[in-house]
Structure formats: C-alpha cells, structure tokens
C-alpha cells in the first residue's frame, strides 16, 4: 500500500507522463504505460543504467550511481537505480 | 702358463710317499716336474676318498683328457701351495719343454738391465717420400715467364740542352685548349681470352598469395521476446519488503528532481537564446525589401488597377491578380454607367515567365476580390463589382501551372499567332501528358489558357453592390439555413462568406462540384443543371446563374436604425488550420432581425454526422464604408426576445476601411487600416483600442500582417511607399519604409514560398505587380518575439483598464464635488 501511494504521488506530479518500476534483471514490475512500450523502455534503459553504473564504479569503486537523467528534445527520462530495482519516470515539457 | 689350468695342491707326506714325490728327495727345485698317471690318481681317490689330497680337484682329474698329469713342485710357493697341478696338456707341454729356454732368457735379461747402455749415435736413415713434396711444390711461387729487360739509351748531348719556349695564341686553337691526349697503344693491350668469372645460380623466387573465403556463420536475424512476469509474480514483487525499502529511500530524490524541473524550464537552450539576443540587439540590421520581380501585362492590365492579389497556396511561384477598372471615387459610387470595354480577367503569373501570364480566368464582371480555396487550391471564388459571386475550377490547368517553368521556354519559342487556331494551341502544349480530355479551350490570343468560370451566383440573390470582401469558412464549421453552426465537416472548405456595402453579409455554399464517391444519379437529383456552355468540361457540376446564398445577415441595428455598409469582414475562425478550437465564450447574441429574403433550398450538403457546435465563437469584425468598425455575432437563438443587442462600434477612421485583418499569431488582435490612420484592436476589449497611429501625411491604402513575425505589419500608401511597422521597436512611426512604385498601392500580400524565401506581393494602381523579397531580419522571428508582442498587448489592455478606472474615479470625484 505504501508502495502504491508513493508511485501514485510521483505519477501525479505535473508533467509526468509515465512511471515504471523495473527489477534488477530488467523485467518490468509495475508500469503505467502499455506493455509493448514498457518492454521497450525497460530493455533499453536497463542496459544504459547498468553501463552508467559500471562507469561510475570503474572510476571510483567507492562511488555509486544515484540518479540518471536523460534529457531529449521532447522528454526527460529520470532513472534511479537501486539494488534490486530501478524506477523510471518520463516527463514531458513543451517549450 | 695360465692360471685356470693351475691348481695348487697340498701334498701330505703320505701322498708324497705314494706317488714318489717326496720333497727334496724325488722332487727338487730344479727337477720339479713329476708326471702322475691318471689311473693312479683315480685309485688313490677311491681308496682314500675324502682324505685324499686330490679330492678338491677330483673333477679336473676325471675330465683330464690325457693319461699323465703333471704336477709341479712349487718351492717358492708361487701359487700358494707347495705343489700344483697343471690341468691341460698344452700347459703341460709348455711347462715341460720350453721352460728351459725361458729360463735361459730370463737369466739373460736379468743380466742386461744391470748394465748402463752405451751411447749410440742416431743412424742416418734414408728419407721415405710420403707425398708431401708435391704439395710444397705447388705452393711455392716461381716465375713462369722470364723477366723482360729493357734498356733505354739516349745520346748524352741531348740531355740538358737549352730549351726555347714559343708562344701560341690560345684563341687560334680551337677551343682555346691544347693538350696531349692519351691514346691507347695497341701493342700493349692484352686480349683477354679467358676470364675467371664467378657465377651463382639462384632459383627463381616468386611470391604469390591467395585468400580463401572463410565462411563463418553470422546471425542474420534474431527473434526474441521479452521476459515478463506473470501477474502473481508482479504482485509478489510489489509486496516484497525490499521494494518498499527501495521506494521509500528513492522517492525523495525523484520528487526533488521533478520539482527542479517544475521550477525551471529544463528544455531552455541557453546557447540558442544567447545567439538570438545578439542578432536582434546588436547593431542596425539591414532591413529592406528586395525587388524580386514585377509583372505586368499590356493587354489586360492597360488602364486597369489591380484590386486583389492572391498567392497560389501550394504551387511555388504562382501568383494571381485580379484587374479592375480604374475608377475615380464618383464613378465608384455610381456603377451603373460603367462600360465594359475590356474583358476582365484574373491573371496567373509565374515567377519563371514574367512576360506571359500562365492562365487567365474569365470573369463576367470586374472582380473586386477573390480567394483560393484552402482545401482545394483549384477552386477559386471571386466577388464581382456588380455583387455576383463567381466560381472557377482550374483543376485541369493545375499541371500546367506546376510545369510553368518549362512552359516558359515553350512559349518563347512559338510565334504569336492570333488566328483562332485551337489546334495550334493543342500542338503547342502537347508535351503535357496530364490533359484529361483533349478538349477545345476558348482562347483569346492563341497563347494563354483562358478558363471560363464555372458558376456564377444569381443576380437576384446576390449583393446589390460590389462584393468587397470574400472569405472561405473553415471546414469544420458549417452553417445551415437556420443559422446554427455545425461542425466536423471534414471535407474541406465548402462555404464562404461575402460582404458588400449594401449592408448585408451573405453565406454561400459551394455548389457541389467534385464528389467522386457519390453516384451520379444522386447528384442529378440534388443539382439543378442548366445548359452548359460547350467549353466547360463536364467533369464539373456547375450551377449556372442559379446559385443562391444560404444565409443573409443584415447589418442593421433595430433600435437605432443605422445601417452599416460593410466593406471588410473578419471572422474569428478564419484561420485555415484545422485545429478545433473550442473556446467557450458566453457572448450575448445579436438581435438579428428577421431575414427578409427567402431562404431557398440550395444543394444540400452531404449530411454527415454533424453535431451542433455550441462553442465556436461567431464573433466578427466588420469594417464599413464610413470608416466604422463594428463587432458583433451572428448566433441566432430561437427565443430572440431575451437577447440583448451586443455590438460594438468604433469610429476611428474617417474614410473607407481598406483592410481589416486578424493577426496570424493572435486570434483576437485585429488590424484595421483606413484613411489616414490605422488601428489595432483586441477582440473582447471594448473600452478602447490597443494602438492607433497618428494621422499620417498620406493615406493608407493597403496593409497586411507579416506571416512570420508577430509584431510586424506592412502598410501601403497612396504615394507608392510601403511602411514596415515593428511593434517591438517603435510604435509611433514605421521602423522602415521603402518606395516601391509611383502610384498608389492597392494591395499587399505576403507569402512564405520556402523557408528561405519570403515574398511580398505589392500591386499598384498602374496594374503592375511587384514581387519583393523580404529580407531575413524581417522574416525570421526571434525566439521570444511572440511572448514579447503578447506582453505588449497585455500591457496595453491593462493600461486601457487603468485609464478607464481612473476616468471613473475622476467622474465620481467630480460628482462628489458637484454635490457639495
């Protein structure tokens, strides 16, 4: 229930299009998008997150990735990696 | 004497007695040999068995081949015992016989070593050749040839004689050079007959290489599907503790990030903004309108003025103008005695052919204004000077217009032949493959295509005065006879509105021309088809002289009995984007007086699912002949007595309004130009206008908003100048002006031909159409220009409100002071 509440709160923010929770292997657990899009996002972003994390750790083993933001022309994707799962939020802004 | 044959023995006295070899009696040192018979030994062995001395060598004795065995007395115990037996015959013999000689020799040698050898000189031995002298001879160097001796002699007196030198001029000698050249003396040359040359044989080596194709399996395609959790697994994961922990630890970060994004615009590109600021503020940019081309036609535009310009919406480089009689003001008022000497036409010009118009549209009367249909650029409607509305369809010439470039070359090559030769016409344009039917066309001069109109409205129901403004209605709204607005007509623009100084606004419906999905029988039922002239292609349905308007609005105010003669009309929804802008506006309706003219049944529009659109705003601005601007609506309500009249009237201009146009960027901002002034209005703001210009020296005769920059508009004057106003720079005077022609400017029309080329078409009173190219600074808006202009308008509105408030307060104050 707490889980639900947190996810709902994040989804209710202004400008948020979708929220996703993905487990450590890249399998989506919880999502607000349709299946095919979710699966696509999960596959792509999971790899990117792993890569980013390994990069950070390679440079300094004591360090770890806390937040990854991908800003594109149309959207901004925010990724928080965790130990067992990753949370992804997609936002949209119009100029 | 070998050891294996010698066997040392010990003879006891008893044995010695038996065999008669008693020591020092029978056998002495000198006489040490004794021969025993083999039988005797054997007998002794038998008799005495183990006690016998011969017992250890019993076998030897038995194997002894001979008869007699030799036993030797060993006085010196040479072999270890005092007797030894010799086991072999040879040894026996050796011992018996030669011992004598060897004894003698031993004696001799013993004697010699005791003496010193006397020195003997080495005896000279003869040398034995072993072949070494040959080698020595080979290696030694000897003269093979006897040495040659030379003796050279000379008479003594020749030595030391005085020398006389002579001079020789160097120039006399060829090359100024004297020498004693050396020459080869043949007697000294030796011909080499034999030469030792070393040769080496080398095998020819050639390098070659080949490559084999190594085919390795490579993945051409992979098919996969994603791993997914089933719902139960998802539930399980969701409810796990770990996920809860993760989310609680993480959500704060996410919210911070989201808030950050809300605070500032994440997509704002600072670099780009910086660049734009520089370009707009730095220095004085060169603002100009570059003359691109100008078109005129001597036949049709002689003594005529251009009343309206329209760019072809889709084809690049095609612009059309409508020509009109150049009338003075009095003549314009009284049109009845106008004579039609020349046929009035609409000319189509192409950029690629400045001399010959591409297409000419035949008009029954002079055209005051015309428009391309936004949905189908082949439909053109125009308003005539006698109040009629005319329709053309140029779909057959569409391809020609698109190929205008190549057509230009063709026309130049062919000679002008004014004979009525339609065959020649077809031959000239036989490169055109797109001609649907090889129809004859009417032609006037044998060169241009002339297109006759397809439909003309009936004179009875048209306007009584010239149609001064004509607009297409956007496709998603539609009127029906009852005046209610219906929406969602996806077919495109099929309705238009016209206004005329006879105080009426008419809504027309296009006679259904091309609907290929409808079967022809239905069409026949709906349409009223009259005699078609021969030269009109029968793909079009047209209604000849039977076209009636759908709706008529009389602009009269019932209570004040004033009439307005609209010259220009500007509807709110006249932007040709197909966005459904549903704005809820609660505006009171106009008390529209009962329509006097009967509503006739027009060809009913195809009844698709039309739902009544309540929320489209139906307000419109009208610019009148007398210079008034009226704002009202046409929404009709069934119970009209509850409605209040709600029209706004602004009297600013003193002369006829020439232009009333909405800004392409702001739908509620209207520019009105008339007389010596122009003004900007905002729809809904009733207490005043946003901006008005001061009285200018000359009259403003035409004007248009710029299509790309929100704060820029162009105004044409009666002295042939174009004023360029930029609201962000200066609002009291034009930011730039430029002279374009000598006579009065009659119409301006901007166009965006390509992202780099923006054109401004300017027509003047002499019938010349100037096409100018708008420079970059005028055509490219900066990023925040829209916002700036919007802010400017907002500020003005606020100022107006403030002024009104002040005025009210002042009035109250006045009232108060008066009371006192």
From TrEMBL, chain A:
Q: Which residues form the Roadblock/LAMTOR2 domain?
A: 3-90
Query: Its domain of life?
Result: Eukaryota
One GO biological process term is: microtubule-based movement
Key word Transcription present: no
Entry GO terms, CC: cytoplasmic dynein complex; microtubule
Checking Pfam families in the record gives:
Robl_LC7 (PF03259)
Give the record's keywords alphabetically.
Cytoplasm, Cytoskeleton, Dynein, Microtubule, Motor protein, Transport
**Major place of residence:** cytoplasm
UniProt cross-references to InterPro entries, sorted A to Z:
DYNLRB1/2, Roadblock/LAMTOR2_dom
Compartments (UniProt record):
Cytoplasm, Cytoskeleton
Keyword Electron transport listed? The answer is no
The protein's role, per its UniProt record: Acts as one of several non-catalytic accessory components of the cytoplasmic dynein 1 complex that are thought to be involved in linking dynein to cargos and to adapter proteins that regulate dynein function. Cytoplasmic dynein 1 acts as a motor for the intracellular retrograde motility of vesicles and organelles along microtubules.
The record's similarity note reads: Belongs to the GAMAD family.
Protein name (Swiss-Prot/TrEMBL): DLRB2 protein
Q: Which organism is it from?
A: Pluvianellus socialis
This protein's encoding gene: Dynlrb2
TrEMBL record, chain B:
Q: Cellular component per GO?
A: inner dynein arm
Q: Where is this region: Disordered?
A: 95-115
Subcellular location per UniProt equals:
Cytoplasm
User: Out of the domains of life, which is the source?
Assistant: Eukaryota
* Principal subcellular localisation of the protein: cytoplasm
Q: Kindly state a single biological-process term from the GO annotations of this entry.
A: cilium movement involved in cell motility
Swiss-Prot/TrEMBL keywords: Cytoplasm, Repeat, WD repeat
Q: Which SMART domains match?
A: WD40 (SM00320)
Listed GO molecular functions?
Answer: dynein heavy chain binding; dynein light chain binding
Q: Indicate what this protein is called per its UniProt record.
A: WDR63 protein
Q: Which organism is it from?
A: Pluvianellus socialis (Magellanic plover)
């Amino acid at each position: 229930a707490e889980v639900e509440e947190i996810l709902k709160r994040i989804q209710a923010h202004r400008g948020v299009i979708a929220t996703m929770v993905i487990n450590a292997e890249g399998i989506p657990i919880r999502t607000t998008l349709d299946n095919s899009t979710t699966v696509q996002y999960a596959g792509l972003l999971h790899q990117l997150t792993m890569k980013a994390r390994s990069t950070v750790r390679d440079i300094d083993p004591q360090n770890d990735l806390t937040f990854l933001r991908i800003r594109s022309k149309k959207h901004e994707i925010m990724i928080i990696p965790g130990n067992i799962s990753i949370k992804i939020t997609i936002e949209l802004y119009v100029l | 004497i070998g050891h294996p044959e010698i066997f040392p023995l010990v003879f006891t006295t008893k044995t010695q007695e038996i065999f008669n070899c008693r020591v020092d009696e029978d056998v002495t040192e000198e006489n040490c040999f004794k021969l025993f018979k083999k039988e005797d030994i054997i007998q002794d062995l038998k008799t005495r068995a183990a006690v016998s001395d011969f017992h250890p060598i019993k076998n030897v004795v038995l194997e002894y081949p001979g008869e007699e065995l030799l036993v030797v007395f060993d006085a010196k115990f040479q072999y270890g015992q005092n007797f030894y037996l010799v086991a072999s015959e040879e040894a026996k013999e050796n011992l018996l016989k030669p011992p004598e000689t060897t004894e003698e020799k031993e004696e001799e040698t013993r004697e010699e070593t005791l003496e010193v050898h006397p020195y003997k000189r080495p005896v000279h031995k003869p040398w034995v050749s072993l072949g070494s002298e040959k080698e020595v001879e080979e290696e030694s160097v000897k003269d093979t040839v006897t040495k040659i001796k030379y003796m050279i002699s000379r008479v003594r007196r020749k030595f030391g004689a005085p020398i006389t030198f002579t001079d020789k001029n160097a120039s006399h000698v060829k090359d100024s050079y004297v020498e004693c050249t050396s020459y080869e003396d043949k007697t000294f040359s030796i011909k080499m007959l034999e030469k030792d040359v070393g040769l080496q044989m080398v095998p020819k080596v050639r390098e070659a290489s080949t490559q084999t194709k190594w085919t390795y399996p490579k993945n051409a395609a992979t098919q996969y599907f994603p791993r997914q959790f089933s719902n139960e697994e998802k539930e399980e994961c969701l409810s796990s503790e770990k996920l809860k922990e993760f989310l609680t630890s993480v959500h704060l970060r996410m919210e911070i990030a989201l808030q950050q994004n809300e605070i500032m615009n994440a997509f704002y590109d600072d670099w780009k903004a910086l660049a734009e600021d520089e370009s707009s503020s730095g220095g004085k940019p060169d603002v100009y309108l570059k003359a691109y081309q100008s078109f005129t036609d001597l036949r049709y535009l002689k003594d005529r003025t251009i009343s309206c310009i329209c760019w072809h919406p889709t084809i690049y480089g095609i612009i059309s103008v409508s020509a009109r009689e150049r009338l003075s003001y009095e003549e314009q008022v009284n049109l009845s005695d106008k004579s039609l000497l020349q046929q009035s036409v609409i000319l189509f010009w192409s950029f690629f052919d400045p001399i010959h118009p591409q297409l000419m549209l035949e008009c029954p009367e002079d055209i005051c204004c015309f428009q391309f249909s936004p949905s189908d650029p082949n439909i053109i409607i125009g308003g005539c000077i006698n109040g009629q509305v005319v329709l053309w369809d140029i779909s057959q010439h569409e391809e020609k217009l698109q190929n205008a470039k190549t057509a230009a070359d063709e026309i130049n090559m062919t000679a002008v032949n004014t004979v009525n030769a339609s065959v020649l016409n077809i031959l000239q344009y036989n490169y055109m493959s797109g001609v649907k039917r090889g129809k004859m066309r009417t032609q006037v001069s044998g060169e241009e295509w002339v297109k006759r109109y397809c439909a003309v409205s009936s004179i009875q129901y048209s306007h009584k005065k010239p149609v001064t403004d004509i607009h297409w209605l956007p496709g998603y709204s539609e009127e029906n006879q009852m005046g209610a607005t219906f929406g969602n007509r996806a077919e495109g623009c099929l309705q238009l509105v016209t206004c005329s100084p006879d105080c009426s606004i008419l809504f027309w419906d296009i006679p259904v021309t091309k609907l290929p999905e409808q079967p022809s029988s239905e069409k026949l039922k709906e349409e009223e088809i009259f005699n078609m002239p021969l030269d009109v292609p029968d793909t079009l349905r047209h209604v000849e002289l039977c076209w009636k308007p759908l709706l008529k609005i009389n602009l009269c105010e019932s209570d004040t009995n004033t009439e307005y003669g609209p010259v220009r009309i500007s509807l709110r929804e006249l932007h040709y984007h197909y966005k459904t802008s549903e704005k809820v506006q609660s505006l009171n309706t106009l008390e529209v007086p009962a329509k006097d003219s009967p509503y006739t049944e027009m060809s009913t529009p195809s009844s698709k699912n039309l739902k009544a659109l309540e929320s489209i705003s139906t307000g419109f601005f009208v610019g009148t002949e007398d210079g008034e601007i009226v704002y009202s609506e046409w929404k009709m309500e069934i119970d009209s007595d509850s409605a209040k009249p709600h029209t706004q009237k602004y009297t600013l201009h003193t002369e006829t309004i020439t232009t009333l146009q909405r800004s392409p960027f702001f739908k509620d901002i209207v520019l009105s130009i008339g007389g010596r002034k122009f003004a900007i209005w905002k729809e809904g703001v009733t207490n005043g206008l946003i901006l008005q210009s001061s009285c200018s020296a000359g009259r403003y005769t035409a004007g248009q908003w710029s299509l790309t920059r929100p704060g820029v508009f162009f105004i044409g004057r009666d002295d042939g100048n174009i004023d360029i106003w930029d609201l962000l720079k200066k609002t009291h005077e034009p930011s730039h002006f430029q002279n374009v022609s000598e006579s009065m400017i009659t119409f301006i029309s901007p166009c965006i031909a390509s992202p780099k080329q923006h054109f401004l078409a300017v027509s003047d009173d002499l019938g010349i159409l100037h096409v100018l190219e708008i420079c970059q600074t005028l055509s490219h808006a900066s990023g925040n220009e829209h916002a700036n202009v919007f802010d400017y308008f907002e500020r003005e509105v606020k100022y107006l409100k403030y002024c009104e408030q002040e005025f009210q307060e002042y009035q109250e104050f006045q009232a108060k002071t008066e009371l006192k």
